[in-house]
Here is the input.
Amino acid sequence: MVNLGLRRVEDSVAAKHPALQQYAACQSHAFMKGIGTFLAASGAAFAVQKLVNKKLPYSLQWSLLLAGAAGSLASYVVTRAETQKCSDFWIYLETGKSPQELAVAGRVPQPAENLPSPEDRESVAPRVRRNKYGDVVE
Here is the structure.
């Protein structure tokens, strides 16, 4: 068993994915960045509300609620972006290609010489029909 943060990962999984440690470190960094963003954004929103409170007085509970909501939103945006970077990094480490390269490679049209001819289409077995439950219908 291999230690991966607080969890133990089986040796077979660690051997199959040699970049697992780097991915876990990236994810950990992304989540810590999200927590930092939550604290910073909540504090900033609360400070701004205290400055504005002189013009628009409202209770402390609303200030805390709005600061928490602003911090949560900012944290979500940052964590989502960082997690996407980690996912792209993981794909790169596993395949050696960026997700953009894989997407472009997946969209390459099939050459015309590989398409079936009209005669081949007739010899192909008829399509199997299925009902909404997935059963084969004759």
User: Anything to note?
Assistant: Residues 108-115 have pLDDT under 50 and may be disordered.
